[in-house]
Amino acid sequence: MAHYITTHDANGTAVFSQKAFVAQNTMPIPIGDIQIISSSHHFPLNLSSETDIDQYQQDRTRGRRICPDDGTATCIISMKGGSESAMHRTMTVDTLVLIEGEMEITLDSGETRTLKAGDSLVQRATMHKWKNVTPNDGLARWVVFIQAAAEPLKFGDKILGHEWAH
Questions:
Q1: From CA 39, how far away is CA 91, in angstroms rounded?
Q2: Which strands make up the sheet holding 26-29, listed edge to edge?
Q3: What is the pTM of this model?
Q4: Which of 25, 105, 107, 135 sits most deeply, having the most CB atoms within 10 A of its CB?
Q5: Which H or E element spans position 62?
Q6: Would you state the pLDDT for residue 82?
Q7: Residues in CB range of 146: below 8 A, 6 or more apart
Q8: Domains of the chain by range and CATH?
Q9: What is the structure's pLDDT at 166?
């Protein structure tokens, strides 16, 4: 998969970055794998330099799985046929577009939705799990744009944060 990043020259003209990128690191996870497409450690970004590109190169090859605190990430996630994640919460807003297969999301309320290729979902730091329901044990793949949540979730006296139910 080709990967390009735009930037600016010293005059402010748009150009493609000349920084050499190492091969994409595919990180295995129990349900499949993740590829980091972009990441930042601060939001909003200062794009007057290329320090964000330097940090992203490190994240891309070191195996960061989740969105950096106070940052953003874009990933491609591939889910093996028939696999199912644990119920979990990440303190992020995740906007995803399913690009291949069929996937079911279940919330801790018991509600479910089935997404098909072309469908989108905004997941707002909720407890959820994924299940690949692609026919014939096929692959499910989605692109997800992630932004860290600014504050913990507060509901009355209850405060919610990252959570993995195994």
A1: 16
A2: 26-29, 32-40, 72-79, 140-148, 92-100, 120-124
A3: 0.83
A4: 105
A5: helix 51-62
A6: 95
A7: 66, 67, 72, 73, 74, 75, 90, 92, 93, 94, 95
A8: 26-148 (2.60.120.10)
A9: 43
